[in-house]
Amino acid sequence: MVEIINQIFSLDLKLKKENNDSVKRYVDRIYHEFEAMGYKVVNPNGQVYRNEMTDLEASIIGDLSATSTITKVLKPIVYQIDNEHTKLIQKGIVIVE
């Protein structure tokens, strides 16, 4: 399932880059179905990066500062939620500048 989530995430990024909003509704519906199946997909793009973020693997460009932000997400953070338990099933892979 994680590989399918990664493929949909990549497709979503490509469609956003090309400003293709005509299929956005369908991609949003797929994300909704993932949530209904107990998966939470998190795109941390634009967030300030901190070393304490254990759910990310980061490649850092330049010097790390208090305002270093996540500028590109190669893979999203994926959690699986069962009842009241949340389990990290994929760390996000990001670029920080």
Task: Give a written overview of the molecule.
- By secondary structure, the protein is of the alpha+beta class.
- Helices cover 30% and strands 33% of the residues.
- The chain has helices spanning 2-17, 24-36; strands at 39-42, 56-60, 70-75, 77-82, 85-90, 92-96.
- β4 (77-82) and β5 form a beta hairpin.
- The protein is flat and about 40 Å long.
- It starts with a helix and ends with a strand.
Summarize this entry quickly.
The chain is an alpha+beta fold and 97 residues long. Helix content is 30%, strand content 33%.
- Beta fraction: 25-35%
Summing up helix and strand content along with how strands pair, one would put the structural category as alpha+beta
Uncertain regions spanning at least 5 consecutive residues: none
Shape annotation:
flat
Helix content: 25-40%
Order of helices and strands: HHEEEEEE
Number of strands: 6
Mean pLDDT, as a whole number? Answer: 94
Main pleated-sheet profile: 3 strands, antiparallel
Rg (CA only): 14 Å
Strand order in the largest sheet: 1-4-5
Count of separate DSSP helical elements: 2
Termini gap: 30 Å
